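Two records follow; treat each independently.
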Amino acid sequence: MKEIYNLLNSFSQAEQKQLIINQLFKRATFIKWIMDEKGISFDRIKDITCFFDDEAKKMYRI
């Protein structure tokens, strides 16, 4: 997840961060593998999930 934070730090506007996060997390297979591999739950990354749009929230039941 460090890589995702590094990527987000490259952008200053919340709208840009939201776009990036939603594009990454809507590709469920990719992000699910990373989260499982690292043992990361959504409860631990609320500072990232706050950028989820309605579709992503519904997808992950957040």
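The next record belongs to a different protein.
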Amino acid sequence: MKLTAALEQEQESNQKRLHDLAMMQSRADAQESEVRTFIKEIRRYSAIEELDEAVLNRLISRILIGEVKKVDGQKVQEVRIVYNFVGEIPEIAA
């Protein structure tokens, strides 16, 4: 009887894990689709000469401007850009 209970518990655990993995795969697939769409849009605008309202609205969801702070005697503020399709893109260190 204990073996049956242990097997049932293991089966439930495996089913939950399978469900969790399926959900993760679904989110990854959706994210991949959004990234592909974003890349397609970026390519469309790769040779623009003027940044206008239409381009901004197509590519950018919102721009977040932080408070002005003084750092080493200079005013600085954080600017975060949230893009359509992919959200924020992490800063790349040069």
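Discussion point: The longest strand covers residues 60-65. How would you locate this feature using only the token line?
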